[in-house]
Amino acid sequence: MPNRSLFPIHLLRRCLLLLITLIGSGLLFTPSSQAIPVYARQTGQNCLACHAGGQFPELTPYGRMFKLTGYTMGSRTEVPLAVMAVASGSTVASKTPGTGDTNADFPQNGLLHFTTASIFAGGKITDNVGMFGQWTYNAYAQQEADGHWAGHSTSDQFDLRYADRFANERRDLIVGGSINNNPGVTDVWNTFNSAFASVPSYVPVSNPGGNGGPFAGVPATPILMQLGPVAAGINAYAFLNQTWYLELGNYQTSNGIFSFLSQGIPDSDMPKLKGNFSPYWRVAYNRDWGANSAMVGLFGFDTSIYYNSPATAGPVTRYRDLGIDAQYQYILDPHAFSAQFSYVRENQHYDNPLWNANDPNYTGSYSNSSNQLNFLRIKGTYSYLAKYGVSLAYAASTGTPDALAYNNSPDGSGNPVPFGNANATPNTRVWIPEAFYMPMQNVRVGVQYYKFTQYSGSSSNYDGNGRNASDNNTVFFYLWGAF
Q1: Quick one: three-class SS letters along the chain?
Q2: How many independent structural domains does the chain possess?
Q3: Does residue 389 carry a pLDDT above 90?
């Protein structure tokens, strides 16, 4: 019988012991006016002022204004630094069928680990200039040939802003510019944050896809959500009467004079954007009234990436992302509720050598000259007293069938492989309920459950070896703290 045990009791006990130890030692304790990370010390506010119900990274109207005005509200701090750490563990519903070596298939299953730590630097530099910078150490950054996981530290999110505000009895206009390393970093509604985790990292329980994860792979996502800190952007934005928001930006590979934005990321791991023109745009309508806030928006991103990156020559894949999103918040102590919706349609076009079988150098890349990928995310969160909370998220990927892009047999033999894709499609659907507790505003402990109703195009036998979508169901436990 497959092993379908849920989260081990011994792991829960170890996490609780770690929480008690951290709190008791004072490593994570700071007074309420000194909350995470740097900005609370700068403004004299606690976490709840900027984050809905204390939930990082969801911003309140005040938090959005703080970011749009260039992180300059309040007084500049003498030591503009903060730190964050995450410990977590996870267990998958079933470890069979697989390769037959469950230690290799699920090397970290059921174990508690320290996973990431980050250093933040930022806040007010001048009256018009401020910054958000993050450097992160990931203890499970990559898996070596011998199966061991190796840690690595790299640049994370970076956002250097100039902003000015022009206000009178008739008009309130904020204008600004940003140098950043990710199209999603500038978004004050956080549409492009991870659809799957409330914390920024996790323990890999399985690695059949070669990159770990809290389960055996994740739904495919548009390039807009994948780039990470490898794209250097210069953006300009305007926010009129706290209602209309417009942003225009342009991205290129973060090398050369922009290499500081991607420090620590090996050149071989950096997808190379073609040329110096990859436009990003966003428009949104926002309304705040009483304890309520609502937004509806449109956004888009166009880029071309060399297929054989890190080389900067050869055929490219052209990505065209177009999305719509919305958010609603109700914040009135002791209650906080938020809901988000986003939908992205991505069109992918491939240069002729990538899909034309007449070119022997690229045979087996794609069956079609173009494909489409659709990504839907819906999430609702409720917290009480900024201590107790629950959330429910749903994410789904659908797309064009492509027997080569979603190949069940990478060696070309035609035989099914463990954890493969027998349906030649990215279609995956997952529900993610979560419960969390915040004993203080800069410590959070939570548990999530990833329930798959479809995986790689099927609910059953998706790999041709008898593995079902539900076999990837995962319990994920985390402990997060910052000061």
Answers
A1: CCCCCCCCHHHHHHHHHHHHHHHHHCCCCCCHHHCCCCHHHHHCCCHHHHEHHHCCCCECHHHHHHHHCCCCCCCCCCCCEEEEEEEEEEEECCCCCCCCCHHHHCCCCCCEEEEEEEEEEEEECCCCEEEEEEEEEEEEEEECCCCCEEEEEEEEEEEEEEEEEEECCCCEEEEEEEEECCCCCCCCCCCCCCCCCCCCCCCCCCCCCCCCCCCCCCCCCCHHHCCCCCEEEEEEEEEECCCEEEEEEEEEECCHHHHHHHCCCCHHHCCCECCCCEEEEEEEEEEEECCEEEEEEEEEEEEEEECCCCCCCCCEEEEEEEEEEEEEEEEECCEEEEEEEEEEEEEEEECHHHHCCCCCCCCCCCCCCEEEEEEEEEEEEEEECCCEEEEEEEEEEEECCCCCCCCCCCCCCCCCCCCCCCCCCCCEEEEEEEEEEEEECCEEEEEEEEEEEEECCECCCCCCCCCCHHHHCEEEEEEEEEC
A2: 1
A3: yes
